[in-house]
Amino acid sequence: MSVLRSRPLKEVSWQYYFFVEAVGDIYSPRGQEMLKKLGKYCNKLHLIGSFKAARELSE
């Protein structure tokens, strides 16, 4: 995990949603396991996108 941000929910006081940025391949077995584990702890889990790291682009 490289970044974790929280924002308050507008509809419910004292409840928050989180944005997480992580480094890795979500399509690898480890990436799929990470998403599965996160799903156990999150009421909702949305994958917004995925992109290659800068070092991968230069190869």
Textual characterization of the structure:
This protein is an alpha+beta fold and 59 residues long. It is built from two helices and two strands. It has helices spanning 29-41, 54-57; strands spanning 3-8, 16-21. A two-stranded antiparallel sheet has the order 1-2. The model has no long low-confidence stretch (mean pLDDT 83).
Tell me what portion of residues adopts beta-strand conformation: 15-25%
- Which strand order spans the largest sheet, edge to edge or round the barrel? 1-2
Distance between the termini: 23 Å
The total count of helices amounts to: 2
Low-confidence stretches: none
Sum up the overall morphology in one term: globular
Radius of gyration over all CA atoms, rounded: 14 Å
Largest sheet: 2 strands, antiparallel
| Total E-strand runs | 2
- Estimated helix fraction: 25-40%
Average pLDDT for all residues: 83
Quick overview:
Helices cover 29% and strands 20% of the residues. With 59 residues, it is α+β, with helices and mostly antiparallel strands.
Layout of strands and helices, then pairs:
Layout: E1 3-8, E2 16-21, H1 29-41, H2 54-57
Antiparallel strand pairs: 1-2
